[in-house]
Amino acid sequence: LNDVLKRFADFMDKEEELKSSLRASLTYPFFILGVGVVTVIILLTFVIPRLAAMFDDMGQILPLPTQILINSSHMLRSYWWLIASILAVLFFTINRVRKNDRGRLLWDQAKLKTTIFGEIILKSEISRLTYTLSLLLSSGIPVTTSLEITASVINNLVIKNALDACKEKITEGNSLFTAIKDSRVFPEFVASIIGIGEESGSLDKSLLRIAQTYEMDVERTIKTLTRLLEPIIILSLGVVVGFIVLAMLLPIFQINIIVK
Question: So what's the pLDDT on residue 259?
Fold first, then answer.
């Protein structure tokens, strides 16, 4: 019991450390994003309408970027309630769908199919799965019981259903390697290492190696993404603000040319 609790505490410490690191890395980028969004909304709501009134008094044909900007400002001021209502309905609909099993299954499938985050979610779940399974098997708990317990700690319903199917196949007499390989949810690397572990009689150590490998891989991927996120957000906001400034200055340049 002492060894089991110690390994469990180590695993929980690593998970909490990863979450804390992720929160700290995302705080500054999302702060910049929030300030940028508020700035754009203020420009579209208060500054652009005054400039639009001034341009209307001049009676000049406005450039296309300026027309797009003025129309966007008018839409935001006139239909902000409609935009807010659509976002609220969308938010509550997604939450509602995620509460039933069918909707949650479709939501979890969609998450796994996303390009970058799907791979992170899959590897994170496999790391938790294999670590828990290694802990249970090393404590002498049978494979089927260990799979049943492990399924309860998995958040993604697709992976959870795959584990339940693996348990059924093992009950029918198949090996864990065969069950994992036939599930088509887990990567071939996982099935291969499990097969080697079963043949060598060290399945719990093989599962622990999978957990450690995927845990390090997830940490590296998250660190890379958080480093890239800040310049991407700054560049995106720079493009939006640059378009607004350009759209505001084009009519002024046009007037200067006409005057000259």
Answer: 55
